[in-house]
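Researcher: Next entry: Sodium:proton antiporter (Mycolicibacterium brumae).
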Amino acid sequence: MGDFDFGTLAMIVAIGMIGPLLALPKKLRAPVVVGELAAGIAFGHSGLGLLNPDDPTFRHLADIGFALVMFLVGSHVPIRDRNLRSSVPVAALRCVLVGVAALLLAAGIEAIFQTGHMLLYAVLIASSSAALALPMIDRIGMAGPAVLSVTAQIAIADTACIVLLPLAIDPPRAGTAALGALAIAAFTLIAYFVIHYLQRKGYRKVIHRYSEQNRVALELRIALLLLFGLCWLAVSTRVSIMLAGFALGLGLSAIGQPRRLARQLFGVTEGFFGPLFFVWLGASLHLAELGEDPSLILLGLSLGAAAMLAHLAGVLTRQPAAMAVLASGQLGVPVAAAALGVDYGLMSAGEPSALILGALVTVVGTSIAANIAQRARNASAAGQTGLEEPDRSGDQSGVAKPPAAGGGPAGGLTADGSPADGEPGGAPQPDGDPQPDGGPAAAPHAGTDGAKPPEGGG
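Model: Predicted structure:
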């Protein structure tokens, strides 16, 4: 492990490409994030030791990547989607049922392992991952009320658990963390109303046209200024930068971002800083500690199994079991918890690795559930084909398509979490011409998990 230089950066970028390569085989379809974590593990503390995650420069760049990743996740929450609003009551009820089940299961896990992190485990068990589950639903091509409902459920769970995580991971400092979270919320609201005012007065369009004509990426600069300002506030108040990035992303989603800005943010994040963060996190894990203490392996397996079991509570509201398991898919919240545990020393040795193991269990579970749902859908389609000749006029391929413009299961994401052509995510609006609040998005994505991203920026 030498000094952090351009050779190290080149190695990190090369290692990060393992993620997309693992996502290529159709039978494997491993989320890109999983491949990047695995690459970091192979070249970090648990593997060859070629990467030093303790290097200050590496850690700082990883923090920037973490903030940008959560920024994108927040911007992909379909706040403006009218189609989801009718599904919110049932989705909220399912989240409550899952939350109650998560508390009970977390209490049982804590009674067995005695780690002192019951509240953290409850948040992890109740969490979902839009970045993981929604692209799977999009790939299957499912649509209808069940898909809209599970999309709303995942969005609610994602938002709630990301907000609760900083409070649950360090209960003695929950009061301070709550004050910091309120400060971040206030800053985000002020930024929202200022940008909304500029949009109503037409100034945002002027800024966009000036930026485009003079090629100065002014909107991207403003977005990064707000993001890094929020991150500074978060660090100053001892709140996770995860919350800062996610909150600003929610604000951007509520306003509606131009496609050009969405492409730029996607390119900056997924092209460099996002993979760097996941490689750093993988490199910082000590998997050897799992082997030294087999109970940590059991802890990880228990957390993953508990997450799927808790989400099956949705069956009580007539939710299909496959959809319930799909909603249990986790990546963002466990990864954030592991990163916080490593950064602030809030966990015992090996516990962050156990959290990642639990998340990987849910990845396997959601993959199986997606295959089951796809077989059921194909069988249903085959039955209908046998009864009547399909209409071949127009675009009738016989494959059900997700609702367009943010109403789809992935809000416009491809199977690996990248924006589809013309749809970089977060219900983006036409360049410099945002739709009125609540209006439909201009074109047919959620998170960090495949068609290729759009040309010219993504």
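Model: Note for the record: The chain has a mean pLDDT of 78.
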